[in-house]
Q: What sequence folds into this?
């Protein structure tokens, strides 16, 4: 199958109707990613079909949980995952893509311009510093492959509104990690975790979305400085 065929058939698992414009933008993003990857380290993936499965279809698993008009923060977006494919697939939601590495954010700004995306704002900042000015500001936060849940939750949950949710994309064997983070979930205002299992279309990889619904405000003292978050996780 071609990358196009993998993409169109795989997306159907998560989204009933995908516009041809969205498919076209995803494939152009893949081209830009693989081209830039020749000169800077953005992804270990070099094959367009693997960009579709390992990146686009994995990230598309979140699309059903994003509603029209919502604001979504991607913490540690790197080369734009999961936030950029989601912004293409959910054009009526607003996305902030946050990363501590300027070169990655510069790349994302180039992609946003090239694809004419008007619902994406790439931001160069550390999450724990951005949180000081953006407490309880987003309906949803999302994140993939950034940190252990105890650390990640302290970075992300303070920026989620009460009534919103944080979705952490994890490997299927994340049960111990989730168990170890139960104290952190409670302290940060999202005591009940849910595991949403899915299988990435075409490559069959089992994955989990850890959903944390924010029911209480995060105490003002979080997030702490990054060194403290890392050395003394909740
Ligand atoms: N989420 C992307 C993905 O799934 O491909 C990128 C994963 S990459 C392994 C981790 C990214 O998190 C890096 O780009 C790094 O700069 C970013 N990151 C780590 N800690 C961060 C922090 N405290 N604030 C902002 N970005 C952070």
A:
């Amino acid at each position: 199958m071609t990358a196009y065929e993998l993409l169109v058939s795989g997306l159907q698992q998560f989204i009933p109707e995908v516009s041809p414009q969205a498919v076209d933008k995803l494939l152009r993003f893949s081209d830009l990613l693989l081209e830039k990857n020749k000169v800077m380290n953005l992804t270990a993936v070099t094959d367009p079909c693997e960009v579709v499965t390992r990146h686009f279809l994995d990230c598309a698993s979140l699309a059903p949980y994003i509603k029209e008009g919502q604001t979504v923060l991607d913490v540690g977006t790197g080369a734009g995952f999961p936030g950029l494919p989601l912004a293409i697939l959910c054009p009526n939601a607003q996305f902030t893509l946050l990363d501590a590495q300027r070169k990655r954010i510069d790349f994302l700004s180039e992609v946003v311009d090239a694809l004419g995306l008007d619902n994406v704002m790439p931001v160069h900042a550390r999450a724990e510093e951005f949180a000081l000015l953006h407490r309880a500001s987003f309906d949803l936060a999302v994140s993939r492959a950034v940190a252990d849940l105890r650390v990640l939750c302290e970075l992300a949950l303070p920026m989620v509104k009460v009534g919103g949710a944080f979705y952490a994309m994890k490997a299927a064997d994340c049960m111990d990690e989730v168990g170890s983070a139960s104290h952190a979930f409670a302290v940060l205002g999202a005591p009940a975790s849910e595991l949403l299992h899915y299988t990435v279309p075409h490559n069959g990889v089992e994955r989990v979305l850890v959903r944390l619904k924010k029911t209480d405000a995060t105490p003002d003292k979080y997030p702490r400085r990054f060194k403290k978050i890392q050395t003394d996780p909740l």
